[in-house]
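Preliminary data (for renewal application), IPE complex.
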Amino acid sequence: MAVAVYTEPRMRNLFSFTGSKEPDAAGRKPVHIAVIMDGNGRWAKKRGLPRLAGHRAGSESVRRMLTYCRDAGIRYLTLYAFSTENWSRPKDEVSGLMHLLEGFIKEHESDLLEKQVRLRVIGRRHDLPEKLQTEIARLEKETEAFDRQLLVALSYSGRAELTDAVRRIAERICDGSLRPGEIDETTISANLYAPDVPDPDLIIRTSGEMRISNFLLWECAYSEFYVTPVLWPDFQEQDFLAALDAYAARDRRFGGVKA
Ligand code: IPE
Ligand code: IPE
Ligand code: MG
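Predicted structure:
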């Protein structure tokens, strides 16, 4: 089946990568990019390799992506690494992925420190193996003072995030600190996993699938979507820049009309 892909012309000259933390005056540079890193399995299959080899190659793409984001002055990067539904995959793949994630934390420690990036994990982290939880907590603490952030969605789904938010809100109603009539959108946003992080401006999905797969369901309300057929392990700087160019050419109206 043919995959529709945005092919806006390269528009790099319209904005400059100054490394500043805020968007340019026209808001053409995303403050927050989120990525559905898909296609590792297909990448491996094409090469006659086990799926885990694709996940390993995908981990190298993560390392490159951190450099692209630093160079482009992107303040927040969220990576969808493992969904609540991914637990249903074959046992070997799941345990291999958990092992890779532990290695990822160890291997990326110096990279995060050198690039001054704060690591945060969003999702049901208590589902993760204990050793991985400990490593995550350690690196989160070590990097907590840094301004730029890498959010990794692990055992994450948008529905689980909203369900967990509803539970927290319900607890406040039960303890009398909140009345149902006081609940508004701010109450819900404030009870998500990373309430201080702005909604993603740009969501990139690799491997051509045109779906959200339970990612950031609340936060994506006005995100711009960019789907590329490139498989995640093949994702290179030119693909990242093409996504930024497409974003720069979008007309974000947020339901309003142009003055
Ligand atoms: C994305 O790659 C990584 C995870 C979901 C963990 P996939 O493993 O989904 O790769 P495909 O979609 O089978 O190619
Ligand atoms: C989405 O990819 C989850 C991650 C990238 C971690 P999936 O491969 O799990 O999603 P579907 O099954 O194609 O919707
Ligand atoms: Mg997939």
